Protein backbone atom coordinates (compact mmCIF):
# COMPACT_ATOMS: atom_id res chain seq x y z
CA UNK A 1 0.00 0.00 0.00
CA UNK A 2 1.38 3.40 -0.97
CA UNK A 3 1.89 5.94 1.79
CA UNK A 4 0.22 9.20 0.81
CA UNK A 5 0.96 11.35 3.87
CA UNK A 6 4.35 12.61 4.97
CA UNK A 7 3.51 11.55 8.50
CA UNK A 8 3.07 7.95 7.33
CA UNK A 9 6.31 8.12 5.37
CA UNK A 10 8.24 9.47 8.35
CA UNK A 11 6.78 6.74 10.55
CA UNK A 12 7.74 4.07 8.01
CA UNK A 13 11.30 5.38 7.88
CA UNK A 14 11.54 5.28 11.68
CA UNK A 15 10.33 1.69 11.69
CA UNK A 16 12.99 0.82 9.11
CA UNK A 17 15.69 2.55 11.16
CA UNK A 18 14.58 0.61 14.24
CA UNK A 19 14.77 -2.63 12.27
CA UNK A 20 18.37 -1.77 11.31
CA UNK A 21 19.26 -0.78 14.87
CA UNK A 22 19.84 2.83 13.82
CA UNK A 23 18.94 5.79 16.02
CA UNK A 24 19.00 8.38 13.26
CA UNK A 25 19.54 9.00 9.56
CA UNK A 26 20.55 11.92 7.31
CA UNK A 27 18.71 12.66 4.06
CA UNK A 28 20.35 15.09 1.59
CA UNK A 29 19.19 16.24 -1.83
CA UNK A 30 21.89 14.38 -3.71
CA UNK A 31 22.68 11.49 -5.99
CA UNK A 32 25.71 9.23 -6.37
CA UNK A 33 27.52 11.99 -8.29
CA UNK A 34 26.91 14.91 -5.87
CA UNK A 35 24.86 16.61 -8.60
CA UNK A 36 23.14 19.95 -8.09
CA UNK A 37 20.02 18.69 -9.86
CA UNK A 38 19.05 15.05 -9.41
CA UNK A 39 16.78 12.59 -11.16
CA UNK A 40 13.34 11.69 -9.78
CA UNK A 41 14.71 8.42 -8.40
CA UNK A 42 16.99 10.40 -6.07
CA UNK A 43 14.38 12.89 -4.78
CA UNK A 44 14.31 11.23 -1.36
CA UNK A 45 14.03 14.46 0.62
CA UNK A 46 11.00 15.62 -1.37
CA UNK A 47 9.30 12.24 -0.96
CA UNK A 48 9.86 12.23 2.79
CA UNK A 49 9.12 15.88 3.62
CA UNK A 50 7.34 17.55 0.69
CA UNK A 51 10.12 20.12 0.24
CA UNK A 52 10.59 20.96 -3.44
CA UNK A 53 13.62 23.27 -3.24
CA UNK A 54 16.90 22.39 -4.91
CA UNK A 55 19.09 22.63 -1.78
CA UNK A 56 18.36 21.23 1.65
CA UNK A 57 18.60 18.18 3.88
CA UNK A 58 16.86 16.49 6.78
CA UNK A 59 17.85 14.50 9.84
CA UNK A 60 15.52 11.97 11.45
CA UNK A 61 15.84 10.44 14.91
CA UNK A 62 13.48 8.17 16.83
CA UNK A 63 11.75 11.04 18.62
CA UNK A 64 12.47 14.13 16.55
CA UNK A 65 13.26 15.32 13.04
CA UNK A 66 14.44 18.52 11.39
CA UNK A 67 14.78 20.00 7.93
CA UNK A 68 17.73 22.24 7.08
CA UNK A 69 17.62 25.03 4.49
CA UNK A 70 19.44 28.32 3.92
CA UNK A 71 17.99 31.80 3.58
CA UNK A 72 16.82 31.21 0.02
CA UNK A 73 14.12 28.84 1.21
CA UNK A 74 12.99 30.32 4.53
CA UNK A 75 9.47 30.97 3.23
CA UNK A 76 9.20 27.99 0.89
CA UNK A 77 10.16 25.35 3.45
CA UNK A 78 7.45 26.56 5.82
CA UNK A 79 4.85 26.40 3.08
CA UNK A 80 5.77 22.89 1.97
CA UNK A 81 6.93 21.02 5.11
CA UNK A 82 4.72 20.24 8.09
CA UNK A 83 6.15 21.93 11.17
CA UNK A 84 4.49 19.31 13.39
CA UNK A 85 6.73 16.66 11.83
CA UNK A 86 9.99 18.58 11.19
CA UNK A 87 11.66 21.43 13.02
CA UNK A 88 12.85 24.21 10.71
CA UNK A 89 16.59 24.74 11.03
CA UNK A 90 18.61 27.48 9.33
CA UNK A 91 21.91 26.86 7.55
CA UNK A 92 24.72 27.86 8.15
CA UNK A 93 23.71 28.66 11.72
CA UNK A 94 23.42 24.92 12.22
CA UNK A 95 23.68 21.75 10.11
CA UNK A 96 22.40 18.17 10.19
CA UNK A 97 25.66 16.98 11.77
CA UNK A 98 25.60 19.67 14.48
CA UNK A 99 21.93 19.03 15.17
CA UNK A 100 22.45 15.28 15.43
CA UNK A 101 25.45 15.76 17.71
CA UNK A 102 23.39 18.06 19.92
CA UNK A 103 20.65 15.47 20.38
CA UNK A 104 22.74 12.28 20.27
CA UNK A 105 23.47 10.23 23.36
CA UNK A 106 26.28 7.81 24.09
CA UNK A 107 26.03 4.58 22.15
CA UNK A 108 23.70 5.91 19.46
CA UNK A 109 24.20 4.79 15.87
CA UNK A 110 23.45 7.45 13.23
CA UNK A 111 23.18 6.14 9.68
CA UNK A 112 24.18 7.81 6.45
CA UNK A 113 24.34 6.74 2.81
CA UNK A 114 28.01 6.96 1.82
CA UNK A 115 26.96 7.19 -1.86
CA UNK A 116 25.09 10.45 -1.25
CA UNK A 117 27.56 12.39 0.94
CA UNK A 118 31.03 13.81 0.47
CA UNK A 119 33.89 12.18 2.33
CA UNK A 120 34.81 15.36 4.19
CA UNK A 121 31.23 15.75 5.40
CA UNK A 122 31.30 12.16 6.68
CA UNK A 123 34.61 12.67 8.48
CA UNK A 124 33.49 15.92 10.12
CA UNK A 125 30.11 14.47 11.15
CA UNK A 126 31.80 11.39 12.63
CA UNK A 127 34.06 13.60 14.76
CA UNK A 128 31.13 15.66 16.06
CA UNK A 129 29.15 12.56 17.00
CA UNK A 130 32.19 10.89 18.57
CA UNK A 131 32.39 13.70 21.10
CA UNK A 132 29.00 12.52 22.39
CA UNK A 133 29.99 8.88 22.26
CA UNK A 134 27.80 8.28 19.20
CA UNK A 135 28.80 6.62 15.94
CA UNK A 136 28.25 7.56 12.29
CA UNK A 137 27.44 4.36 10.39
CA UNK A 138 27.42 3.85 6.59
CA UNK A 139 24.25 1.95 5.63
CA UNK A 140 23.99 -1.00 3.31
CA UNK A 141 21.24 0.17 0.99
CA UNK A 142 19.34 3.41 1.62
CA UNK A 143 16.57 2.93 4.22
CA UNK A 144 14.29 5.37 2.41
CA UNK A 145 14.50 3.21 -0.70
CA UNK A 146 13.34 0.27 1.43
CA UNK A 147 10.06 2.03 2.32
CA UNK A 148 9.49 4.10 -0.86
CA UNK A 149 7.27 1.58 -2.63
CA UNK A 150 6.65 3.55 -5.82
CA UNK A 151 10.13 5.02 -6.16
CA UNK A 152 10.84 5.84 -9.83
CA UNK A 153 13.52 3.87 -11.58
CA UNK A 154 16.63 5.73 -12.80
CA UNK A 155 16.27 7.02 -16.34
CA UNK A 156 16.84 4.47 -19.09
CA UNK A 157 17.41 7.13 -21.79
CA UNK A 158 20.25 6.36 -24.17
CA UNK A 159 23.45 8.38 -24.08
CA UNK A 160 24.46 9.96 -27.38
CA UNK A 161 27.68 11.24 -28.96
CA UNK A 162 28.34 14.98 -28.84
CA UNK A 163 29.94 15.87 -32.15
CA UNK A 164 33.46 17.27 -32.24
CA UNK A 165 32.09 20.12 -34.38
CA UNK A 166 30.31 21.33 -31.21
CA UNK A 167 32.89 20.21 -28.64
CA UNK A 168 35.92 21.70 -30.41
CA UNK A 169 38.23 18.94 -29.11
CA UNK A 170 37.97 15.19 -29.45
CA UNK A 171 37.55 12.92 -26.47
CA UNK A 172 40.89 11.33 -27.34
CA UNK A 173 42.61 14.73 -27.02
CA UNK A 174 40.94 15.38 -23.67
CA UNK A 175 41.87 11.95 -22.32
CA UNK A 176 45.46 12.43 -23.49
CA UNK A 177 45.60 15.65 -21.51
CA UNK A 178 44.38 13.83 -18.39
CA UNK A 179 46.93 11.05 -18.98
CA UNK A 180 49.76 13.59 -19.24
CA UNK A 181 48.66 15.10 -15.93
CA UNK A 182 48.52 11.68 -14.26
CA UNK A 183 52.03 10.85 -15.45
CA UNK A 184 53.42 14.22 -14.34
CA UNK A 185 51.92 13.78 -10.86
CA UNK A 186 52.91 10.13 -10.55
CA UNK A 187 49.33 8.85 -10.31
CA UNK A 188 48.06 5.64 -11.90
CA UNK A 189 44.44 6.68 -12.40
CA UNK A 190 41.76 9.21 -11.55
CA UNK A 191 38.04 8.81 -10.92
CA UNK A 192 35.71 11.19 -12.78
CA UNK A 193 32.40 11.11 -10.92
CA UNK A 194 30.63 14.41 -11.69
CA UNK A 195 28.11 13.81 -14.48
CA UNK A 196 28.97 16.95 -16.44
CA UNK A 197 32.69 16.09 -16.23
CA UNK A 198 32.02 12.61 -17.62
CA UNK A 199 29.94 14.13 -20.42
CA UNK A 200 32.62 16.70 -21.26
CA UNK A 201 35.50 14.21 -21.16
CA UNK A 202 33.86 11.64 -23.44
CA UNK A 203 32.00 14.13 -25.67
CA UNK A 204 28.79 12.40 -24.64
CA UNK A 205 25.40 13.76 -23.67
CA UNK A 206 22.32 12.19 -22.10
CA UNK A 207 18.83 12.77 -20.78
CA UNK A 208 18.93 11.36 -17.25
CA UNK A 209 18.59 14.60 -15.27
CA UNK A 210 16.03 17.29 -15.96
CA UNK A 211 17.56 20.43 -17.52
CA UNK A 212 21.09 18.99 -17.70
CA UNK A 213 22.04 16.77 -20.69
CA UNK A 214 24.04 14.11 -18.84
CA UNK A 215 23.99 10.33 -18.50
CA UNK A 216 24.30 8.45 -15.19
CA UNK A 217 27.83 7.09 -15.38
CA UNK A 218 31.36 7.13 -13.98
CA UNK A 219 34.75 7.12 -15.69
CA UNK A 220 38.12 5.82 -14.55
CA UNK A 221 40.96 7.33 -16.58
CA UNK A 222 44.33 5.55 -16.55
CA UNK A 223 47.78 7.04 -17.03
CA UNK A 224 48.13 5.36 -20.44
CA UNK A 225 45.15 7.35 -21.78
CA UNK A 226 42.69 4.46 -21.71
CA UNK A 227 39.45 4.75 -19.76
CA UNK A 228 36.60 2.70 -18.41
CA UNK A 229 33.04 4.01 -18.69
CA UNK A 230 30.62 2.55 -16.12
CA UNK A 231 27.09 2.92 -17.48
CA UNK A 232 23.91 0.85 -17.69
CA UNK A 233 24.28 -1.35 -20.81
CA UNK A 234 20.85 -0.39 -22.20
CA UNK A 235 21.99 3.23 -22.40
CA UNK A 236 24.79 2.46 -24.87
CA UNK A 237 23.86 2.61 -28.56
CA UNK A 238 26.09 1.25 -31.34
CA UNK A 239 26.73 4.87 -32.35
CA UNK A 240 28.00 5.74 -28.88
CA UNK A 241 30.22 2.66 -28.71
CA UNK A 242 31.73 3.55 -32.09
CA UNK A 243 32.17 7.17 -30.99
CA UNK A 244 34.05 6.15 -27.83
CA UNK A 245 36.40 3.77 -29.66
CA UNK A 246 38.57 0.93 -28.42
CA UNK A 247 40.45 3.03 -25.85
CA UNK A 248 37.29 3.38 -23.74
CA UNK A 249 36.11 0.11 -22.23
CA UNK A 250 32.37 0.09 -21.54
CA UNK A 251 31.38 -1.67 -18.32
CA UNK A 252 28.10 -2.10 -16.44
CA UNK A 253 27.49 0.69 -13.93
CA UNK A 254 26.74 -1.98 -11.34
CA UNK A 255 30.39 -3.10 -11.51
CA UNK A 256 31.77 0.28 -10.49
CA UNK A 257 32.16 -0.34 -6.75
CA UNK A 258 33.85 -3.72 -7.23
CA UNK A 259 36.13 -2.20 -9.90
CA UNK A 260 37.27 0.40 -7.38
CA UNK A 261 38.07 -2.41 -5.00
CA UNK A 262 40.33 -4.04 -7.58
CA UNK A 263 42.81 -1.14 -7.77
CA UNK A 264 45.03 -2.55 -5.03
CA UNK A 265 48.44 -0.90 -4.89
CA UNK A 266 47.49 1.79 -7.41
CA UNK A 267 47.73 5.52 -6.68
CA UNK A 268 44.32 6.97 -7.52
CA UNK A 269 43.46 10.69 -7.63
CA UNK A 270 39.97 11.61 -6.39
CA UNK A 271 38.32 15.01 -5.94
CA UNK A 272 36.55 15.43 -2.58
CA UNK A 273 34.24 18.06 -4.09
CA UNK A 274 32.87 15.77 -6.78
CA UNK A 275 33.17 12.19 -5.49
CA UNK A 276 31.04 10.69 -2.73
CA UNK A 277 32.41 9.04 0.41
CA UNK A 278 31.48 5.60 -0.97
CA UNK A 279 34.13 5.95 -3.69
CA UNK A 280 36.85 6.70 -1.14
CA UNK A 281 35.72 3.81 1.06
CA UNK A 282 35.70 1.31 -1.82
CA UNK A 283 39.18 2.37 -2.96
CA UNK A 284 40.66 2.27 0.53
CA UNK A 285 39.01 -1.05 1.38
CA UNK A 286 40.51 -2.47 -1.83
CA UNK A 287 44.02 -1.37 -0.94
CA UNK A 288 44.44 1.57 -3.32
CA UNK A 289 46.46 4.62 -2.29
CA UNK A 290 44.01 7.53 -2.51
CA UNK A 291 45.26 11.04 -3.23
CA UNK A 292 42.82 13.89 -2.67
CA UNK A 293 43.21 16.43 -5.43
CA UNK A 294 41.16 18.46 -7.91
CA UNK A 295 39.27 16.71 -10.70
CA UNK A 296 41.54 17.46 -13.70
CA UNK A 297 38.55 17.94 -16.03
CA UNK A 298 36.99 20.81 -14.08
CA UNK A 299 39.29 23.68 -15.05
CA UNK A 300 39.75 22.38 -18.60
CA UNK A 301 35.96 22.21 -19.00
CA UNK A 302 35.51 25.74 -17.67
CA UNK A 303 37.93 27.30 -20.20
CA UNK A 304 35.90 27.25 -23.41
CA UNK A 305 37.77 26.74 -26.67
CA UNK A 306 37.06 28.85 -29.75
CA UNK A 307 34.51 26.39 -31.12
CA UNK A 308 32.62 26.37 -27.82
CA UNK A 309 32.73 30.17 -27.69
CA UNK A 310 31.24 30.40 -31.19
CA UNK A 311 28.59 27.87 -30.20
CA UNK A 312 27.68 29.97 -27.17
CA UNK A 313 27.33 33.13 -29.25
CA UNK A 314 25.00 31.32 -31.64
CA UNK A 315 22.98 29.82 -28.79
CA UNK A 316 22.66 33.24 -27.14
CA UNK A 317 21.38 34.78 -30.38
CA UNK A 318 18.79 32.02 -30.79
CA UNK A 319 17.77 32.40 -27.15
CA UNK A 320 17.68 36.18 -27.33
CA UNK A 321 15.17 36.04 -30.18
CA UNK A 322 12.93 33.68 -28.19
CA UNK A 323 13.08 35.77 -25.02
CA UNK A 324 12.41 38.97 -27.00
CA UNK A 325 9.32 37.43 -28.60
CA UNK A 326 8.15 36.47 -25.13
CA UNK A 327 8.72 39.94 -23.66
CA UNK A 328 6.83 41.54 -26.56
CA UNK A 329 3.96 39.09 -25.96
CA UNK A 330 4.05 39.81 -22.22
CA UNK A 331 3.94 43.57 -22.81
CA UNK A 332 0.67 43.11 -24.69
CA UNK A 333 -1.06 40.42 -22.64
CA UNK A 334 0.02 40.96 -19.02
CA UNK A 335 -1.46 44.47 -18.63
CA UNK A 336 -4.88 42.94 -19.39
CA UNK A 337 -4.63 40.96 -16.15
CA UNK A 338 -5.15 37.51 -17.62
CA UNK A 339 -1.62 36.08 -17.36
CA UNK A 340 -0.39 34.13 -14.33
CA UNK A 341 3.13 32.94 -13.45
CA UNK A 342 2.69 29.42 -14.80
CA UNK A 343 1.14 30.63 -18.04
CA UNK A 344 4.01 33.06 -18.57
CA UNK A 345 6.61 30.34 -17.96
CA UNK A 346 4.81 28.01 -20.37
CA UNK A 347 4.64 30.71 -23.04
CA UNK A 348 8.37 31.39 -22.73
CA UNK A 349 9.07 27.66 -23.09
CA UNK A 350 6.82 27.65 -26.18
CA UNK A 351 8.80 30.46 -27.81
CA UNK A 352 12.10 28.70 -27.06
CA UNK A 353 10.71 25.45 -28.40
CA UNK A 354 10.26 26.97 -31.86
CA UNK A 355 14.02 26.77 -32.36
CA UNK A 356 15.15 23.44 -33.87
CA UNK A 357 18.41 23.45 -31.85
CA UNK A 358 16.69 23.94 -28.49
CA UNK A 359 16.82 20.68 -26.51
CA UNK A 360 15.56 21.58 -23.02
CA UNK A 361 15.37 24.30 -20.43
CA UNK A 362 18.61 24.76 -18.49
CA UNK A 363 16.70 25.04 -15.18
CA UNK A 364 13.14 25.50 -13.97
CA UNK A 365 12.03 28.99 -14.96
CA UNK A 366 11.72 31.50 -12.13
CA UNK A 367 8.51 33.25 -13.16
CA UNK A 368 7.90 35.66 -10.30
CA UNK A 369 5.19 38.28 -9.94
CA UNK A 370 4.83 40.91 -7.22
CA UNK A 371 6.15 39.71 -3.84
CA UNK A 372 7.33 36.41 -5.35
CA UNK A 373 10.00 38.36 -7.23
CA UNK A 374 11.54 39.14 -3.83
CA UNK A 375 12.38 35.41 -3.48
CA UNK A 376 15.60 34.98 -5.51
CA UNK A 377 15.10 31.22 -6.01
CA UNK A 378 11.30 31.15 -6.21
CA UNK A 379 9.85 28.14 -8.03
CA UNK A 380 6.29 28.47 -9.25
CA UNK A 381 3.94 25.50 -9.01
CA UNK A 382 0.17 24.95 -8.94
CA UNK A 383 0.02 25.84 -5.26
CA UNK A 384 2.08 29.04 -5.38
CA UNK A 385 0.93 30.32 -8.80
CA UNK A 386 -0.55 33.84 -8.81
CA UNK A 387 -1.74 36.23 -11.54
CA UNK A 388 0.75 38.85 -12.73
CA UNK A 389 -0.87 42.06 -11.49
CA UNK A 390 -1.07 45.03 -13.88
CA UNK A 391 0.95 47.89 -12.43
CA UNK A 392 3.69 45.70 -10.93
CA UNK A 393 7.20 44.33 -11.38
CA UNK A 394 7.62 40.89 -12.98
CA UNK A 395 10.93 39.00 -12.84
CA UNK A 396 11.73 36.08 -15.13
CA UNK A 397 14.97 34.08 -14.79
CA UNK A 398 15.25 31.30 -17.36
CA UNK A 399 17.54 29.49 -19.73
CA UNK A 400 17.74 27.02 -22.57
CA UNK A 401 19.91 24.09 -23.58
CA UNK A 402 21.01 24.40 -27.20
CA UNK A 403 23.41 22.14 -29.09
CA UNK A 404 25.99 24.94 -29.11
CA UNK A 405 25.63 26.25 -25.59
CA UNK A 406 23.69 26.79 -22.37
CA UNK A 407 21.87 30.06 -21.66
CA UNK A 408 20.79 31.83 -18.47
CA UNK A 409 19.11 35.22 -18.52
CA UNK A 410 17.08 37.33 -16.11
CA UNK A 411 14.93 40.27 -17.09
CA UNK A 412 12.91 42.45 -14.74
CA UNK A 413 10.09 44.34 -16.44
CA UNK A 414 7.35 46.73 -15.49
CA UNK A 415 3.89 45.38 -16.28
CA UNK A 416 1.72 48.34 -17.15
CA UNK A 417 -2.02 48.87 -16.87
CA UNK A 418 -4.54 48.76 -19.74
CA UNK A 419 -4.95 52.55 -19.72
CA UNK A 420 -1.22 53.17 -19.29
CA UNK A 421 -1.71 54.99 -15.99
CA UNK A 422 0.34 52.68 -13.77
CA UNK A 423 3.92 53.72 -13.15
CA UNK A 424 6.74 52.13 -11.12
CA UNK A 425 7.50 53.84 -7.82
CA UNK A 426 10.50 56.12 -7.39
CA UNK A 427 12.05 53.49 -5.12
CA UNK A 428 11.64 50.74 -7.72
CA UNK A 429 13.30 52.90 -10.35
CA UNK A 430 16.11 53.87 -7.99
CA UNK A 431 16.81 50.26 -7.00
CA UNK A 432 16.68 48.96 -10.56
CA UNK A 433 19.02 51.72 -11.71
CA UNK A 434 21.50 50.86 -8.99
CA UNK A 435 21.35 47.20 -9.98
CA UNK A 436 21.92 48.26 -13.58
CA UNK A 437 24.91 50.41 -12.59
CA UNK A 438 26.47 47.43 -10.82
CA UNK A 439 25.79 45.22 -13.82
CA UNK A 440 27.46 47.74 -16.12
CA UNK A 441 30.39 48.17 -13.73
CA UNK A 442 31.12 44.44 -13.90
CA UNK A 443 30.49 44.17 -17.64
CA UNK A 444 33.03 46.96 -18.30
CA UNK A 445 35.63 45.73 -15.81
CA UNK A 446 39.25 45.17 -16.78
CA UNK A 447 41.57 43.40 -14.37
CA UNK A 448 45.04 41.85 -14.25
CA UNK A 449 45.41 38.16 -14.98
CA UNK A 450 45.29 36.25 -11.71
CA UNK A 451 42.30 38.19 -10.37
CA UNK A 452 39.60 36.02 -8.82
CA UNK A 453 35.84 36.40 -8.71
CA UNK A 454 35.82 37.38 -5.06
CA UNK A 455 37.89 40.46 -5.89
CA UNK A 456 35.39 41.59 -8.56
CA UNK A 457 32.19 41.05 -6.58
CA UNK A 458 32.18 44.50 -4.96
CA UNK A 459 31.89 46.16 -8.38
CA UNK A 460 28.34 44.83 -8.73
CA UNK A 461 27.31 45.92 -5.22
CA UNK A 462 28.92 49.31 -4.71
CA UNK A 463 26.00 51.43 -5.95
CA UNK A 464 23.52 49.44 -3.86
CA UNK A 465 25.78 49.80 -0.83
CA UNK A 466 25.75 53.56 -1.27
CA UNK A 467 21.98 53.40 -0.67
CA UNK A 468 22.36 51.05 2.30
CA UNK A 469 21.06 47.93 0.54
CA UNK A 470 22.57 44.70 -0.80
CA UNK A 471 21.60 41.29 -2.21
CA UNK A 472 22.16 37.92 -0.58
CA UNK A 473 23.23 35.71 -3.47
CA UNK A 474 26.41 35.52 -5.52
CA UNK A 475 26.93 37.88 -8.44
CA UNK A 476 28.06 35.28 -10.95
CA UNK A 477 28.47 31.55 -11.55
CA UNK A 478 30.17 29.58 -14.30
CA UNK A 479 28.11 28.17 -17.18
CA UNK A 480 28.71 25.06 -19.29
CA UNK A 481 28.62 24.35 -23.02
CA UNK A 482 25.42 22.38 -23.53
CA UNK A 483 25.99 21.12 -20.00
CA UNK A 484 25.35 22.37 -16.44
CA UNK A 485 23.97 25.88 -16.08
CA UNK A 486 25.92 26.16 -12.81
CA UNK A 487 29.51 25.12 -13.50
CA UNK A 488 32.68 25.52 -11.46
CA UNK A 489 35.30 26.24 -10.51
CA UNK A 490 34.97 29.99 -11.09
CA UNK A 491 32.50 32.21 -9.31
CA UNK A 492 31.90 35.92 -8.66
CA UNK A 493 30.77 36.20 -5.06
CA UNK A 494 31.71 37.60 -1.70
CA UNK A 495 34.98 36.02 -0.52
CA UNK A 496 34.63 33.43 2.18
CA UNK A 497 31.00 32.74 1.39
CA UNK A 498 29.26 29.39 1.33
CA UNK A 499 30.23 28.71 -2.26
CA UNK A 500 33.57 27.44 -3.53
CA UNK A 501 35.24 29.22 -6.40
CA UNK A 502 35.51 32.82 -5.19
CA UNK A 503 39.28 32.40 -4.97
CA UNK A 504 39.68 30.78 -8.39
CA UNK A 505 41.56 33.12 -10.77
CA UNK A 506 39.57 33.89 -13.89
CA UNK A 507 40.98 32.65 -17.18
CA UNK A 508 40.26 33.77 -20.73
CA UNK A 509 37.54 31.48 -22.07
CA UNK A 510 35.57 31.20 -18.83
CA UNK A 511 31.86 32.04 -19.07
CA UNK A 512 30.08 33.52 -16.06
CA UNK A 513 26.78 35.14 -15.24
CA UNK A 514 26.57 38.82 -14.31
CA UNK A 515 23.46 39.05 -12.11
CA UNK A 516 23.26 41.64 -9.34
CA UNK A 517 19.85 42.16 -7.79
CA UNK A 518 17.76 43.77 -5.10
CA UNK A 519 14.90 42.21 -3.13
CA UNK A 520 12.36 43.97 -0.94
CA UNK A 521 10.76 41.21 1.08
CA UNK A 522 7.02 40.96 0.57
CA UNK A 523 6.97 43.60 -2.16
CA UNK A 524 9.13 43.17 -5.26
CA UNK A 525 12.47 41.97 -6.56
CA UNK A 526 14.91 43.02 -9.28
CA UNK A 527 17.67 41.12 -11.06
CA UNK A 528 19.51 41.85 -14.31
CA UNK A 529 21.43 38.90 -15.70
CA UNK A 530 23.55 38.48 -18.81
CA UNK A 531 26.23 35.91 -19.48
CA UNK A 532 29.77 37.21 -19.99
CA UNK A 533 32.86 35.64 -21.56
CA UNK A 534 36.28 36.32 -20.05
CA UNK A 535 38.56 37.65 -22.81
CA UNK A 536 42.02 39.27 -23.12
CA UNK A 537 41.81 43.05 -22.63
CA UNK A 538 43.78 45.52 -24.73
CA UNK A 539 44.87 48.48 -22.59
CA UNK A 540 47.32 51.03 -23.95
CA UNK A 541 50.51 50.99 -21.91
CA UNK A 542 49.35 48.08 -19.75
CA UNK A 543 51.99 46.16 -17.85
CA UNK A 544 51.44 42.42 -17.91
CA UNK A 545 48.39 40.54 -19.18
CA UNK A 546 44.91 41.90 -18.55
CA UNK A 547 41.41 40.49 -18.92
CA UNK A 548 37.92 41.82 -19.39
CA UNK A 549 34.47 40.59 -20.36
CA UNK A 550 32.53 40.21 -23.60
CA UNK A 551 28.76 40.25 -23.09
CA UNK A 552 27.08 37.23 -24.71
CA UNK A 553 23.40 37.79 -23.89
CA UNK A 554 21.36 40.12 -26.10
CA UNK A 555 17.82 41.02 -25.01
CA UNK A 556 16.51 44.56 -24.36
CA UNK A 557 16.44 45.91 -20.80
CA UNK A 558 13.37 47.75 -19.53
CA UNK A 559 13.96 51.49 -19.80
CA UNK A 560 10.82 52.26 -17.76
CA UNK A 561 12.74 51.16 -14.66
CA UNK A 562 15.79 53.37 -15.33
CA UNK A 563 16.51 56.85 -13.97
CA UNK A 564 18.79 58.34 -16.60
CA UNK A 565 19.82 61.08 -14.18
CA UNK A 566 21.55 58.47 -11.99
CA UNK A 567 23.67 57.20 -14.87
CA UNK A 568 27.06 58.59 -15.85
CA UNK A 569 27.85 59.42 -19.46
CA UNK A 570 29.92 56.22 -19.68
CA UNK A 571 26.97 54.16 -18.39
CA UNK A 572 24.60 55.77 -20.88
CA UNK A 573 27.12 54.99 -23.63
CA UNK A 574 27.20 51.36 -22.47
CA UNK A 575 23.40 51.18 -22.52
CA UNK A 576 23.17 52.62 -26.02
CA UNK A 577 26.02 50.50 -27.33
CA UNK A 578 24.53 47.37 -25.79
CA UNK A 579 21.12 47.98 -27.32
CA UNK A 580 22.64 48.79 -30.69
CA UNK A 581 24.27 45.36 -30.55
CA UNK A 582 20.99 43.77 -29.43
CA UNK A 583 19.36 45.26 -32.52
CA UNK A 584 22.18 44.05 -34.75
CA UNK A 585 22.12 40.49 -33.38
CA UNK A 586 18.35 39.99 -33.18
CA UNK A 587 16.89 42.00 -36.07
CA UNK A 588 17.62 39.27 -38.65
CA UNK A 589 15.80 36.76 -36.42
CA UNK A 590 12.61 38.76 -35.80
CA UNK A 591 9.86 40.14 -38.00
CA UNK A 592 6.55 41.96 -37.87
CA UNK A 593 5.36 43.16 -34.48
CA UNK A 594 8.30 41.48 -32.75
CA UNK A 595 10.79 43.42 -34.86
CA UNK A 596 8.88 46.69 -34.34
CA UNK A 597 8.93 46.09 -30.56
CA UNK A 598 12.67 45.42 -30.70
CA UNK A 599 13.37 48.61 -32.61
CA UNK A 600 11.42 50.67 -30.08
CA UNK A 601 13.10 49.03 -27.08
CA UNK A 602 16.56 49.53 -28.59
CA UNK A 603 16.19 53.24 -29.31
CA UNK A 604 18.93 55.33 -27.62
CA UNK A 605 18.27 56.21 -23.97
Task: Sum up the structure in keywords.
605 residues; Creatine Amidinohydrolase, Chain A, domain 1; Creatine Amidinohydrolase; 3 domains; 6-stranded mixed sheet; globular
- The number of helical runs is 19
The percentage helix is 25-40%
Catalogue the unreliable spans: none
What is the total number of structural domains?
Answer: 3
- Main beta sheet strand tally, sense and closure: 6 strands, mixed
Domain Peptidase M24 C-terminal: 546-605
Protein name: Aminopeptidase P family protein
Pfam family, one: Creatinase_N_2
Domain Creatinase N-terminal: 9-141
Give a short overview:
Residues 546-605 form the Peptidase M24 C-terminal domain. Residues 9-141 form the Creatinase N-terminal domain. The protein is α+β, with helices and mostly antiparallel strands and 605 residues long.
Description:
This protein is an alpha+beta fold and 605 residues long. It has three domains: 6-147, Creatine Amidinohydrolase, Chain A, domain 1, CATH 3.40.350; 160-295, 3-Layer(aba) Sandwich (Creatine Amidinohydrolase, Chain A, domain 1); 303-601, Creatine Amidinohydrolase, CATH 3.90.230. It is 34% helix and 20% strand. The protein contains 19 helices and 28 strands. Strands 4-3-2-1-5-6 form a six-stranded mixed sheet, sandwiched between helices. The protein has a six-stranded mixed sheet with strand order 12-11-10-8-13-14. Helix 10 (238-244) links the parallel strand 11 and strand 12. Helix 4 (96-103) runs parallel beside helix 5 (119-130), helix 14 crosses helix 19 (592-601) and helix 16 packs antiparallel against helix 17. The longest helix is centred in the middle third of the chain and has 28 residues, at 306-333. The N and C termini lie far apart (64 Å). The model has no long low-confidence stretch (mean pLDDT 96).
